[in-house]
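This is your field. Have a critical look at both lines of this record:
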Amino acid sequence: MSGQELIGYASAIVVGLVIGLAGGGGSILTVPIFVYVFHIPTVLATTYSLFVVGSTSLIGSLNHIWNKRVDVRVTVAFALPSFISVYLSRRFLVPALPDPLFQFERFSLSKSQAILYFFAIVMIIAARAMIHSDRPEQGEAADGQPRYKSLALDGLAVGLLTGTIGAGGGFLIVPLLVLMAGLPMYRAVATSVLIIAVNSFVGFMGDIHHTDLNWNFLLPFTGLSIIGIGIGLYLSRFVAPDRLKKGFGWFVLVVAIYMITRELM
């Protein structure tokens, strides 16, 4: 095993660690790790990411369910439309994208490049959200009554994002659950982890019909990520997640800039 691969496997622990501490954000690194460290094709990397994120988040959600932090009604309202969106995008949209996606004279934009550019843009948005991680007010749900219609529409949008780039979208889900459902932060984080888990597995199920998977690679990587979330859940008792998210946000921003620079070159 090369030094680069060792770094990649160590990064799996970091992915789980951040999900455990902050309820999201760590999954944004899985696709870059697969593409740039392990040299896995982009579309396959998004499939692998869905499995890793789903498995890791599922373990974390079991802890939150046991401690009764998950809001089941909000989960159903947000997640059902999201499930539909993520499955359809993985089953039909991503395979149907032409390759090259765009071509004009000598300029050509491949399907893989387009996904990576889109992913990098999402990473920049996620980094900004983590760096400016002031807790949102209760927004539309200031009266404590969830806005189920708004949650359903947001679920559709997050599902499309998850299906396209293979990231859990926790950096979007947590503030939406606070603003649209009026959940306190600790319950929004817990509910987000469960939504991410099921969303990711639904997207993964949309891929297995047309994808050959290397389980000898995928399972060890996932196992390390699960170890990471276990550590993160333990440390969450002692570490302030907001401070961690800001530092991690700057790191995600650097990775996004690296991705854009590398693809342009």
